[in-house]
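Consider the tokenized backbone below.
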């Protein structure tokens, strides 16, 4: 006589059903459980500070609305309007809503499916040819007949999540939705930095244009005075030609600045979701480039990795791809579906109210595509390699975020040194110009010396404007590298 164990071992299908039932009761799910991202930057995760921060930055937690630290109300307004109306932000929001709807769909897929159907039919049957049936005359036939049919039915089906396929699908969809949320934040970070840089460039060009126009006016005055001296014979025509040449060169330098000014006005309008030219009147006033605060909070590498949206998106993508391995694993095993149908019917509408006279069917169905010639196994391998790629992308995102932060901090640190150096050069050029004017008015200096000193002073002033704009742009770069400028999508 065979024992129970031997009987079970001789029937693989019975053992498989028992295994499925045990798995269902235990609530297990196939595939690896996500245990968090790998430690891609061990030194940064130990709680250290940024290497390139220097003395210009401190480790306090930075403000997310960093542009308010520049103290420019117009810039604050532009950034806020861009975050609300920019098409790229709108597209990212739409992708987030799509992913959240995908999560809702996966959660609903795990629930039973219930349906209802109703039927009312009238049939007219042709007359039967009785003569043909009895071998008599073909003219012998019965009259046409009709019949009515009424039915009302309910059906339900549910697939038992024995091996965790639905659970893994919900996990993957949830992580994908969180990755889309982080991607929206990344778009906001980039947009805020782009608006700030365009605004800084616009103010820089406007100031340099105003300085160039002042230089043109001064040179025109000098040209008029030199013309009067040439008429009196106290100046040569060569001096007049040299002044005219410098005047033409100064006017030529203004042309690319004017083109840049218009381009940045167009860029700002487009970033705000408006047509080019819409902001021309609002931004026509010449305003100095806003300068960064004396101290800039940067936090630490650990907070950076937790905050940067692209790193968070890469980590959530890794979690989603890990869950998809379990989905592929579950497809290798049987699936158990439960079906149920309840129906009422008859030839009269009143038959639908006879609840004691109904038809019911309930049946489980176990299906297993066990002979697939390696397709399911190949899908598992493919999902594992996709997960490996996602892990490498996460490591790359971590390293690139740390590099971006260190590079930006280094540029900001040396940008302050550059501004201080150029400011001293500009102060020396101002003193030299005053002395050259005094010597020319006293008759001890030549016009050529005065023109050359004026050119050097204008160059020093333009260099200072450019250095200040570069410093503020490097401040913007620090905020972008730190992953600041996003808001909760809810």
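A designed sequence for it:
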């Amino acid at each position: 006589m065979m024992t129970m164990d031997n009987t079970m071992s001789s029937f693989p299908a019975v053992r498989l059903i028992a295994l499925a039932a045990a798995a269902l009761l235990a609530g297990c799910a196939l595939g690896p459980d996500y245990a968090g991202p790998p430690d891609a930057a061990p030194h940064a995760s130990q709680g250290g500070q940024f290497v390139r921060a220097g003395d210009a930055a401190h480790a306090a937690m930075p403000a997310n609305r960093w542009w308010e630290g520049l103290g420019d109300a117009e810039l604050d307004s532009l950034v806020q309007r861009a975050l609300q109306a920019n098409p790229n932000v709108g597209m990212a929001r739409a992708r987030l809503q799509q992913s959240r709807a995908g999560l809702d769909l996966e959660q609903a897929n795990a629930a039973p499916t219930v349906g209802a159907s109703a039927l009312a039919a009238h049939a007219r049957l042709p007359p039967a040819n009785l003569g043909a049936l009895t071998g008599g005359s073909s003219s012998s036939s019965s009259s046409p007949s009709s019949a009515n049919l009424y039915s009302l039915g309910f059906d339900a089906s549910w697939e038992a999540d024995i091996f965790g396929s639905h659970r893994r699908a919900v996990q993957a969809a949830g992580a994908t939705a969180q990755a889309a949320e982080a991607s929206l934040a990344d778009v906001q970070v980039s947009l805020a930095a782009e608006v700030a840089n365009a605004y800084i460039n616009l103010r820089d060009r406007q100031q340099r244009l105003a300085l160039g126009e002042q230089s043109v006016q001064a040179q025109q005055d000098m040209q008029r005075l030199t013309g009067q001296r040439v008429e009196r014979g106290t100046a040569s025509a060569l001096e007049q030609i040299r002044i005219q040449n410098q005047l033409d060169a100064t006017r030529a330098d203004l042309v690319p600045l004017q083109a840049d000014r218009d381009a940045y006005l167009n860029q700002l309008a487009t970033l705000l979701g408006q047509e080019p030219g819409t902001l021309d009147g609002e931004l026509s006033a010449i305003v100095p480039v806003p300068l960064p605060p004396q101290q800039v909070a940067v936090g630490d590498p650990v907070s950076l990795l937790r905050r940067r949206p692209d790193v968070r998106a890469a980590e959530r993508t890794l979690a989603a791809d890990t869950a998809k391995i379990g989905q592929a694993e579950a497809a290798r095993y049987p699936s158990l579906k439960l079906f149920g149908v309840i129906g009422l019917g008859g030839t009269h509408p009143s038959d639908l109210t006879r609840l004691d006279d109904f038809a019911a069917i309930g049946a489980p169905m176990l299906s297993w595509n066990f002979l697939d010639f390696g397709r399911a196994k190949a899908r598992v391998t493919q999902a594992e390699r996709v997960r490996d790629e996602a892990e490498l992308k996460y490591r790359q995102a971590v390293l690139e975020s740390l590099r971006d932060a260190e590079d930006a901090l280094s540029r900001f640190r040396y940008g302050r040194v550059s501004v201080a150096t150029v400011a001293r050069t500009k102060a020396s050029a101002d003193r030299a110009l005053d002395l050259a004017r005094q010597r020319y008015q006293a008759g001890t200096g030549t016009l050529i010396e005065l023109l050359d000193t004026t050119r050097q002073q204008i160059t020093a002033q333009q260099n200072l404007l450019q250095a200040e704009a570069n410093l503020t742009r490097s401040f913007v770069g620090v905020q972008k590298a730190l992953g600041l400028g996003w808001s909760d999508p809810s």
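The radius of gyration is 40 Å.
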